[in-house]
Amino acid sequence: MANLDTPLDPRVARTRRDVVAAASALLVEVGWDAVTHAEVARRAGFSKATIYAHWPTRFDLIRESIEQICDESQHPPATGDLRGDLRASLRDFADDLTEGHLDRLLAGVVERANQGEVVSQLRLRLYETGTRAMRNILHAHLDAKHVDPSLAMLTGGVLVRVTFEGKPATTSFIDDLIERVLAPTAA
Fold first, then answer.
1. 23 pLDDT higher than 90
2. Containing domain of residue 16, as a range?
3. Angle, CA 153 vertex, CA 141 and CA 62 arms, to 5°
4. CATH number, position 175
5. DSSP states of the chain as a string?
6. End position of a domain, from candidates 43, 69, 95
7. Which of 56, 84, 90, 99 is exposed most, by the fewest CB atoms within 10 A?
């Protein structure tokens, strides 16, 4: 077993960086089906043998790509204004669905929902990463019992609007959604 304190060989580090970057780009640009060992090897400039040696399955490539995407995700900072912070977070979520290709990542986990524990873990990782900022905002302002239902309604409302209805999540739509979700929590 390797010593965790030992620095990674720069060549191995470069290979990992380049391969995961290529796989991540394929994942968000084209979707899950595009992430093959052959295509990642072509894009990253390495042999298929190298790719298979480090990532034996497509799910290994996809898992590491989603981990990188999640690790690099950024959300608007909270200011303490409940409605303003939720508006900014939901706008960010809607933008990620339309411009950041989050819809492809989510479609991949939904399409493969029954394909085992790896996909379940990826689905959960995407959800936790995507909702962390909103969850923290809600926890700061609402009773704990209202956080999960409010989070589900807020994210679900934007997801349905953008992905299924194909309409923009305008500021007025987001503000209306926030008011409808928060109204029952005021009591």
1. yes
2. 10-69
3. 105
4. 1.10.357.10
5. ---TTSPPPHHHHHHHHHHHHHHHHHHHHT-GGG--HHHHHHHHT--HHHHHHH--SHHHHHHHHHHHHHHH---PPP-S-HHHHHHHHHHHHHHHHHTS-HHHHHHHHHHTTTS-HHHHHHHHHHHHHHHHHHHHHHHHHS-HHHHHHHHHHHHHHHHIIIIIS-----HHHHHHHHHHHHHHHH-
6. 69
7. 99
The token duo for 44 is 């990253």
Cβ within 8 Å of residue 35, ≥6 positions away: 23, 26, 27, 58, 61, 62, 65
User: Which residues, other chains included, contact 76 with Cβ-Cβ below 8 Å and sequence gap of 6+?
Assistant: 85, 88, 89, 91, 92, 133
The answer to whether residue 1 sits within a structural domain is no
The overall pTM is greater than 0.85? no
pLDDT tens for residues 146-173?
A: 999 999 999 999 999 998 899 999 999 9
Angle, alpha carbons 44-129-156 (nearest 5°) = 115
pLDDT exceeds cutoff 90 at 36: yes
| Claim to verify: residue 52 and residue 129 sit in the same structural domain | no
